[in-house]
Amino acid sequence: NHAAELTAGYYNLDDRDGYRTIARMLKRHHASLNFTCAEMRDSEQSSEAKSAPEELVQQVLSAGWREGLDVACENALGRYDATGYNTILRNARPKGVNKSGPPEHKLHGFTYLRLSDELLQGQNYVTFQTFVKRMHANQ
């Protein structure tokens, strides 16, 4: 079901990639593509919602990369756990780290939303520090 997408006026169906059309338009206007929910996992969503954020993020980012756009992401929820951070890392470099040069597909930027006191406390902060180092490929 793609009711929200259809309501917004574009068609993202099994045989038509609506996000690729948007990426083409952004390319014509020399824009970048920024998408949200980089930390969300399919298995963490209510089955009633029939939501597939992992698939959606990959579809949108892939559409941008295929059109040669600078692609960026951000998180939607306040997450302080390794699972959420690892999901972001998979989206940031879906083919991993290339030791002989820059990866073929990578995020141009990432915006960390929800900076809070909770993030900066104890193990949450240690886990966040590890995430930041891994985002920079431990460099």
UniProtKB/TrEMBL annotation:
Keywords, ordered alphabetically: Carbohydrate metabolism, Glycosidase, Hydrolase, Polysaccharide degradation
GO MF annotation: an example: beta-amylase activity
Classification via Gene3D superfamilies: Glycosidases (3.20.20.80)
Reactions catalysed: Hydrolysis of (1->4)-alpha-D-glucosidic linkages in polysaccharides so as to remove successive maltose units from the non-reducing ends of the chains
GO BP field: polysaccharide catabolic process
Pfam families: Glyco_hydro_14 (PF01373)
Annotated SUPFAM superfamilies: (Trans)glycosidases (SSF51445)
Top EC class of this enzyme: hydrolase
Keyword Hydrolase: yes
EC number: 3.2.1.2
Family of the protein in this entry: Belongs to the glycosyl hydrolase 14 family.
The protein, known as: Beta-amylase
Annotated source species: Brachypodium distachyon
